[in-house]
Design a protein that fits this description.
This protein is α+β, with helices and mostly antiparallel strands and 118 residues long. It has five helices and two strands. A hairpin with a 2-residue loop joins β1 and β2.
């Protein structure tokens, strides 16, 4: 958890948060995507205030940057053997095109095996 000094708000204030301490609400909101942050601001005046605090943007940006996908695996079957290729989302780390289209894959033979933000 972040320190109370870094957050700049009271750790014991649980008004409008359903009983959760304000520092926990702050931590949870810093992990929300930018797309969902505007909806969170509509939940309550407290959530809106927390997300507009000057101390909010730095931990939010840092946590969102850590959640970025590095790439993905494409798995196929060639001559009854599975073949897996990693496609990096960072062109400097791979020669594969990060904008590769998966439209060529047959719909009946493709499935997502695992997904992780880390």
């Amino acid at each position: 958890m972040s320190s109370q000094a870094e957050q700049g708000h009271g750790a014991g204030d649980d008004q409008d948060s359903g009983g959760l301490p304000e520092d926990q609400m702050f931590e949870m909101l810093t992990r929300v995507s930018l797309d969902d942050l505007s909806a969170c601001r509509q939940v309550s005046a407290q959530w809106r205030r927390l997300t507009y605090e000057p101390t909010f943007s730095s931990p939010h940006r840092r946590r969102r940057a850590a959640a970025v996908v590095s790439g993905y695996f494409v798995q196929g079957m060639v001559r009854n053997r599975y073949s897996t290729t990693f496609v990096s989302m960072h062109p400097s780390q791979s020669h594969a095109d990060p904008r590769v289209s998966l439209d060529f894959l047959p719909a009946g033979h493709v499935r997502v095996e695992a997904v992780s933000a880390h």
